[in-house]
Amino acid sequence: MRRLTWFNTTALTLGFAFLYLPMIILIIYSFNESKLVTVWAGFSTKWYGELLGNEAFLSAAWVTLKVAVFSSTLATILGTLGALVLVRAGRFPGRTLFSGMIYAPLVMPEVITGLSLLLLFIGIGLDRGVFTIVLAHTTFSMCFVSVVVSSRLVSFDRSLEEAALDLGCSPMEAFRLVTLPIIAPAVISGWLLAFTLSLDDLVIASFTAGPSATTLPMKIWSSVRLGVSPEINALSTLMIGIVAIGVISASLITKRAALRQEAEERAAVQA
Amino acid sequence: MGQTVFEPWNDPDAKPLIQFKNVTKRFGDFVAIDNQSFDIYEQEFFALLGPSGCGKTTMMRMLAGFETPTEGTILLGGQDIAPIPPNKRAVNMMFQSYALFPHLSIWENIAFGLKRDNMPKDKIDARVAEMLKLTRLEQFAKRKPHQCSGGQRQRVALARSLAKAPKLLLLDEPLGALDAKLRQDTQFELMDIQEKTGTTFVIVTHDQEEAMTVASRVAVMDHGKIIQADTPARIYEMPNSAYVADFIGDVTIISGTATPAGDGYDIAFAEGQPILHAKSDIQLAKAQSCHLAIRPEKVAITAEKPADAANALQGKILDIAYLGNLSTYHVELANGQVVKSQTANTRRLSRRSFTWEDEVWLSWTDTAGVLLKE
Questions:
Q1: Which of chain B's residues have a Cβ under 8 Å away from the Cβ of A164?
Q2: Euclidean distance between CA atoms B9 and B229, whole angstroms
Q3: Averaged pLDDT score across all residues of chain A
Q4: Which residue has the higher pLDDT, B283 or B352?
Q5: CA geometry: angle at A116 spanning A113 and A122, to 5°?
Q6: CATH number reported for the structural domain that contains residue B279 in this entry
């Protein structure tokens, strides 16, 4: 191991501080006894207790979860199909237009996406609520899924599908039994990405949500405008915890799978 | 007691398994297969041989059902296979990349096709066990493809494609990924398995030695056309064109003009060089240009002019290619023409008689060379 020089140590410390200091402060103050956010008055978990009793926050959390699950699932299905067409279909009239359009939401300002969806929903007379948020989130997150899945499909050996057809699969069976299991990791990470995007989206949800549905980011944002309460800190700490657990376990699973494969390959060479 | 020779292509009553009838395949403007008609018979080991881009892979993919002919028909057992999708054909293919399913074990890979046929479980078990035994993979059944060596993967791919007992097995460069030693062993193994199962094999390869070793008939292809389809021995000894002679094995091609003489021709090829003699059945007019193709092993190399050789030329040794068991001498004649001569190295190196720059005589009989039309 190379030793860290003072320069490296400083750069590392500053970098991590830049990234994590705000979160650490937020977490510390979520255990503050005082109602005033900036004044430390001793350790307490009472804001977590109050949070559990807050109907508005809990219902917002429930709405957010529903929206995230439905929209990410829908986006994964549509995004995967889009990726298949983009990678597989070869040349067809309008291919360039289609591939440009599928990636457009990646660079489109959220305000514009949100506004245009709002106008559409009003135009077709759709009542705004959970359903419209799901539609909106699906629209903007499916392109992320399609980017992730198509990068996997590009390196996918087509002869695997041909082999499946050759051995008696219908094209649908070949997709279900061969293609899907092999690209599954990309599809799952696409789903996770869409889920996370939906979970923390504020702008698009604000445009497309009706009075009947409020997501957690919207709720947090509106409460903060009336002043930051320690309850919000507690809620944010919980979200950080959930995300951290998710990310860490996902990377652990990937790493263990890689290690196991390496060990198996070594065993095969020795055999 | 004489064994019956396996030569269904010479039997007018034999019914071919596969018939290509005026098959043309175009990709846009590119003609991949150019109006080809030929037959493949049951239990044949048929090799499609040619350089890359000659259309041999397209030919195979049309049999598998991944491409359809632009014109013409392909019959399998008398039935037009154009409308039949790949999953309904009694044809299986072994892919160049093996295309083993990485998420399935060796056992599941081999059972994959059988499960699609809704075969009862005990029958699947028995058939997979039989395939594992045939390809000597019994102890690897539970492994995943990435836990196997290249040779083992090759055998899994073969077992998987044979499991459904297809009428026809297609092999796309099956040994391309193996090293030379393993490839030789596997060639004999393939022939053995082909004989045991009685399946018709069609192999695509660019390796002429491989085609010659395994095949009952070899079709030499170039630019979407089969130039010659015949047994390995006839392809080698009686090539029908300079292309085939040159593609298969080592050869010296001397171009000249022919004059009928006796039951053959006299060939004049350069001023100041002796007239060559070759016996041949082909019809050439007087002074028609022609090629004489001579295999290096049929050319003798001597220090003195041989007394009664039909053809004898003098030259200087330009190069010696030492192959261990054989040496090929490249001898340059006075007019610049290079003629190759090959001798077996029956003696050790220090006892060898010729070296670079030596003046030598080359000689061959009047039946050694093959006379070819321009």
A1: 101, 112
A2: 10
A3: 86
A4: B283
A5: 135
A6: 2.40.50.140
